């Protein structure tokens, strides 16, 4: 068999020799538990919002935590687009962001959560109480999740 030589400057479209059907629309799941910074004391009544990771924050769904600090499990769409070069057909995922708000606590944002089809991703969010004399009561704590394959 003769070896092919490729021009590394020219992009090539790889064809799947197995003709597998890519996952187009599946759902993944996010489970969030909200507790205090000082321990495993659950925070009832915290608002958990999931946002699509687009150029701007687009809210997908907002839920409220129960007396155990647990938010209802969020069912989130996961889409695989074979035209996006950075998407892996074997492990498709969609990026989302989470924001947790609770009165008298600093907001928490978690960016670039990778949600995979038919898999539940768990987060325990530690909230920090805003001191009475806080100079910046509206500041946020941001957590960025590193991307796979970056």
Task: Describe what you observe in this structure.
The structure is a single chain. The model is unreliable at 1-23 (pLDDT under 50). A hairpin with a 3-residue loop joins strand 2 (47-53) and strand 3. It is elongated, with a radius of gyration of 20 Å. The chain starts with 24 loop residues before the first strand and ends in a 6-residue tail after the last strand. The protein is built from no helices and 8 strands. The strands form 2 sheets. A 5-stranded mixed beta sheet has the order 3-2-5-6-8, with no helix packed on it. It has a 3-stranded mixed beta sheet with strand order 4-1-7, with no helix packed on it. By secondary structure, the protein is mainly β.
List keywords for this structure.
41% strand, 3-stranded mixed beta sheet, mainly beta, disordered N terminus, single chain, 150 residues
The low-pLDDT segments are 1-23
Overall mean pLDDT:
76
Order of helices and strands: EEEEEEEE
Strand order of the largest sheet: 3-2-5-6-8
Number of DSSP-assigned strands: 8
- Report the principal-axis shape: elongated
Beta-strand content estimate: 35-45%
Helix content: under 10%
Count the DSSP helices: 0
Oligomer: single chain
Structural class label:
mainly beta
Biggest sheet overview: 5 strands, mixed
Ends apart, CA distance between termini: 35 Å
| Radius of gyration from the alpha-carbon trace, in angstroms | 20 Å
Quick description:
This protein has 150 residues and is an all-beta fold. The chain contains no helices and 8 strands.
